[in-house]
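stage 2 :: seqdesign
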């Protein structure tokens, strides 16, 4: 490959000597010159123009350029046919082929908002179509009836010409997971001894190598099972006990830490992989799975907390194998109840998100485990049990699978409400202003930014934090803007609210994730230096985010839809490290949060990035703000003034040593903040993200977690778990023998 593709970051001597900053447009111009020399990447040029339009057409320009670039790759056609379901190929071609410099109907959000049915759809219709190709044809007919058919989508002449409500188009599983389950399904056998509840032999594979989604954990269990029934799981536990084997559960494998099974132990999956391979065009529905599995399902309590139509909360039992996408669709169908918080990703099971104590966003929120009113599991003797005592739940709801195999969680839901959002792209220094006295990196232009502007930005930042229920900021490295995504929760009629993103937008987001993964893994892209890789990805990503500063353009949708505002992120592998940092009390305003600490954590990370030349963070810096928690092992526990949930993400191309050293630098910063009295804040990593191998205050991180961060609560956790077991006829030793793993042993049972 010619030298231009490996150009180092621009460091113009004259500019550097005069102390001037390189403008963002100048960097893009140099990037364009670099990419122009690489035939396969040349189609990216329109999306990387010096002055990318800040408009609704920007995301379309980005995707069209991305798709044309990956279409030039030698391996594209084979991967395209393997990964992308036929039912959405018509959409991808229409969206990618439309002229990017002209406004196109498919990006007109006013049209898209009207496309979703304005009233609750019949239960039998939403996401249950037997022929999704026909649904895409109906979509084309709908466009035709509006006089705004997207180029490339032809109406089916068999359909009526009058306007049709847009049917919901199901998202396919991620290409990564679909490849995995296809591989597993081909190798499945019937186990000679373990049976399901209907008497059939449980499906099983011996000696199958395991890898998690982020490729940070690899091992080879002696046995990998795919269970369909709770009785089958009970039988499996009894069998494992006889064989003296430990059992761990894995769903979509999105945890980066090693909470999985181990070499020569037992792994069990609760996902319906047979159905996923038989119906590759869509995420299978609850109804389809429940014909053969009782490990997936949603049931609202017959006697909710309230007995009137104005009830604000209810209990809902969600089976452990139920995915976020299934639950999202259920909320959309019923429009009555929703979780007050959730993770963004829809391709994750409830067992998988609750086990490592995952969280959402907003100072009014806690963790998913805090919402658990009853925890259902199978104990070491193969008996189905449950825990509902509030004190016991503080340990059981977030026990990492140690208590037993989780079969369901009964959660507290809130009445459905409307979410109103105006996502915006704000100049970096004004999105979250630097704290007083902070030396802004020279690479960030402060030209034209006055003290008055910073003061106003500070007030706006604090107002968002106090008034909005969902709080999230994204900075794509080397760009000059931050994408701010906060939502307000409004009590309102939800009957007429559209889905968000719309069916078409959700599919496009799925394709954007798939396209980005394809591009990043291509050899032409890997030929670029880390700097140019980062700048390319960052600008493509930023261009795909909506920018709606005008209140009259606000997105109005269901809370359950807003929680999953971005689809398709599971299509792109990444590395991710996140820490939960307590927010201290203000030293000058008693009873108030110390907002400068939040700003410090954000800007310290940006400064660390710019102090390096290797661009170790190639995807995004993301920050959410959450409340505290009552769960014993929650990283948010005891954070009375809230929690800074801050994370850094990079691509799988990033050299491991560069990424590891950057994670150590961020950990050093994030674990050294002090409260108003000078005491160190108890910063703790998100259990499910990357933290292995780090050191904190001179200690290996496992020692830090055991002897500092959780020193007071680990004994309480062990005591509570032991008490739960004793009351139900088992011991903590039996739990460890059946459901433990090496990491849990080191963290919880090393003196």
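stage 2 :: out
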């Amino acid at each position: 490959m010619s030298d231009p593709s490996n150009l180092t970051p621009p460091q113009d001597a004259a500019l550097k000597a005069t102390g001037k900053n390189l403008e963002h447009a100048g960097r893009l111009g140099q990037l364009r010159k670099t990419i122009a020399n690489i035939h396969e990447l040349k189609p990216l040029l329109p999306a990387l123009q010096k002055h990318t339009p800040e408009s609704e057409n920007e995301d379309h320009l980005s995707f069209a350029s991305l798709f044309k670039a990956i279409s030039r790759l030698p391996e594209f056609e084979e991967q395209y046919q393997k990964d992308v379901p036929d039912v959405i190929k018509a959409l991808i071609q229409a969206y990618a082929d439309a002229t990017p410099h002209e406004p196109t109907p498919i990006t007109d959000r006013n049209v898209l908002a009207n496309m979703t049915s304005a009233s609750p759809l019949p239960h039998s219709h939403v996401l249950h179509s037997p022929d999704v190709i026909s649904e895409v044809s109906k979509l084309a007919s709908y466009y035709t009836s509006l006089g705004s058919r997207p180029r490339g989508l032809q109406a089916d002449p068999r359909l009526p010409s009058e306007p049709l409500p847009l049917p919901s188009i199901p998202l396919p599983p991620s290409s990564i997971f679909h490849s995995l389950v296809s591989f597993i399904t081909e190798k499945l056998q019937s186990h000679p001894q373990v049976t399901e509840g209907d008497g059939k032999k449980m499906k099983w594979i011996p000696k199958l190598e395991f890898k998690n989604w982020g490729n940070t954990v690899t091992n080879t269990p002696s046995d990998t099972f795919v269970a369909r029934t709770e009785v089958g799981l009970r039988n499996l536990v009894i069998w494992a006990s006889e064989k003296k084997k430990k059992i761990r559960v894995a769903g979509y494998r999105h945890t980066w830490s090693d909470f999985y099974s181990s070499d020569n132990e037992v792994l069990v999956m609760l996902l319906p992989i047979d159905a996923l391979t038989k119906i590759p065009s869509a995420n299978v529905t609850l109804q389809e799975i429940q014909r053969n599995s009782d490990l997936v399902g949603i049931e609202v309590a017959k006697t909710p907390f309230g007995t009137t139509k104005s009830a604000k909360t209810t209990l809902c039992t969600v089976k452990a194998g139920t995915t976020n996408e299934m639950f999202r669709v259920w909320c959309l169908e019923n429009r009555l109840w929703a979780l007050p918080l959730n993770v963004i990703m829809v391709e994750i099971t409830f067992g998988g998100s609750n086990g490592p104590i995952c969280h959402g966003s907003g100072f009014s929120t806690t963790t998913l485990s805090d919402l658990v009113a009853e925890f259902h599991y199978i104990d070491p003797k193969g008996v189905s049990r449950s825990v509902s005592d509030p004190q016991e739940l503080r340990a059981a709801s977030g026990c990492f699978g140690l208590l037993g195999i989780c079969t369901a969680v009964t959660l507290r839901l809130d009445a459905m409400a409307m979410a109103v959002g105006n996502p915006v792209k704000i100049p970096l220094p004004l999105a979250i202003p630097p704290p007083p006295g902070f030396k802004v990196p020279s690479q960030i232009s402060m030209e034209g930014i006055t003290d008055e502007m910073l003061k106003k930005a500070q007030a706006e930042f604090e107002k968002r934090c106090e008034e909005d229920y969902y709080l999230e900021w994204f900075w794509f490295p080397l760009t000059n803007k931050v994408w701010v995504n906060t939502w307000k929760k409004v009590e309102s009629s939800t009957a007429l609210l559209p889905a968000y993103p719309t069916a078409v937008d959700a599919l496009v987001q799925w394709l954007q994730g798939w396209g980005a993964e394809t591009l990043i893994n291509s050899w032409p892209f890997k030929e670029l230096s880390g700097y140019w890789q980062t700048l390319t990805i960052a600008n493509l990503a930023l261009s795909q985010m909506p920018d709606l500063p005008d209140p009259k353009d606000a997105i109005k949708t269901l809370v359950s839809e807003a929680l999953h505002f971005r689809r398709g992120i599971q299509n792109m592998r990444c590395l991710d490290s996140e820490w939960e940092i307590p927010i201290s009390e203000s030293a000058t305003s008693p009873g108030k949060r110390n907002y400068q600490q939040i700003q410090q954590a954000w800007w310290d990370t940006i400064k660390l990035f710019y102090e390096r030349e290797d661009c170790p963070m190639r995807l995004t810096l993301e920050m959410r703000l959450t409340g505290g928690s009552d769960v014993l092992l929650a990283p948010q526990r005891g954070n009375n003034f809230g929690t800074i949930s801050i994370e850094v993400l990079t691509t799988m191309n990033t050299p491991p040593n560069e990424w590891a050293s950057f994670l150590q630098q961020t950990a050093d910063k994030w674990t050294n903040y002090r409260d108003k009295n000078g005491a160190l804040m108890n910063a703790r990593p998100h259990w499910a993200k990357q933290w292995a191998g780090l050191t904190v205050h001179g200690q290996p991180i496992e020692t830090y977690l055991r002897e500092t961060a959780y020193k007071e609560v680990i004994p309480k956790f062990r005591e509570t778990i032991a008490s739960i077991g004793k009351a139900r006829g088992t011991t903590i030793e039996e739990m460890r023998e059946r459901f433990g793993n090496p990491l849990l042993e080191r963290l919880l049972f090393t003196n």
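stage 3 :: structure notes
- Residues 70 and 518 are 7 Å apart (CA to CA).
- The first helix runs from residue 13 to 17.
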